[in-house]
Predict the structure.
Amino acid sequence: MTKLSIEQMLYLLYTVAYSNEGTVTQGTVKEHLSKELKKNADGIYNTLYQQNLLESPKRRRISVTEEGRKALVANLQTTDYEFDSSKGQKVLNTLLHCLKLTSLKDYVSSVPIEDMDFDTFVEKFKELYFAERKQQELRGVVAIYSRDIGLKFRDNHPISQSTLDNYFNTLKLTGKVFAVTEKEEEIIQWVE
């Protein structure tokens, strides 16, 4: 995921919001930005363009690339930014809140979701677990959080969140994985 600054995220958001038939002029985007952002709008545009998050398919018109849309959605899901202008901030804040809620329920992955059988899951999960454990042992402390390893697994393997949850619970029920909760975080250990 491309980490965006607040300014970059807003520039992409406004570019998408004010696009007609997929493109918009830089001037239109700049016109709708806050006074503080207007001052640096050209610099923000240049940075986003160089990162291939924006493109200019026609002279004087810009659009957000597919990579830019993915970066925007991913950053909207994790931002704490709140709109304070009088131009519909309630609707925008509600949109951001809903995006956050959906991101907690289903982690967005660029890998297409496919079915994975339980045996394949066990093999790949065990491999990921021991690779993570080895890395942590080199740093001196081993604490493998189920949430973190679940996110890493989803990043690397085409599996739905519900299937991952079911398979992980089966690992715990069959005794292959021991789990303990500390400070509201579940830490796991492979038992076999």
About this structure: Residues 105-111 have pLDDT under 50 and may be disordered. The first strand starts at residue 24 and ends at 25.
